[in-house]
Specification:
Layout lengths: L1 H12 L4 H13 L3 H13 L5 H15 L3 H14 L4 H13 L3 H14 L4 H9 L5 H12 L5 H17 L3 H18 L10
Helix pairs in contact: 1-2, 2-3, 3-4, 4-5, 4-6, 5-6, 6-7, 7-8, 8-9, 8-10, 9-10, 10-11
Amino acid sequence: MEAAAAYRRLLALRPELADSWYNLALMERASGRFPAALEAYDQALVRGVSGPEEVRLNKAVILSDDLARPDLAQVELEAALALAPDYLPALLNLGNLHEDMGRKAEARAAYERALAVAPDDAVALARLAGLARADAATVERVRRALAAPGRSEADKAELGFALGKALDQAEAYDAAFAAYGAANAASRAAAGGLRYDRRA
């Protein structure tokens, strides 16, 4: 609160400081003042903040997650992609937004576009595989991605759950069970392996 107030005082004197508007927007969102955060982001954009696509993405997240305005969030994501067509976070968020709205074809297009930018992206591949019953080629693509060296535990979990779902839909229940088990283990490892201990 004090830091946000200090930024407001600074910006009253020096409104041209685009990065300070950006920082104020972050603080306003963290404090639950979503309209104020959007206004600060708008000021950052007007004043030429570096990385405007990230500002548009941040606005989209507030509009979608905090204010339940997916229509306006989509406008911001499309604006981000107009500025930076290969901006992976905006592509993933756009796919997720379409998926949440039940627009599977648009979600698929966004995830495919994300994979064109980052062919090894675990989130895009897992979300794509989960959109509908996965075909054999998609299952194999997920398996190859899962086996790729250097995958983080979080990526292994994301891909493993997608593989488990695809195998379950294909009625390959033993393989699905094994995939889910490996995904759960990776998820625990990604979280630091914390487990409930009755003795504690």
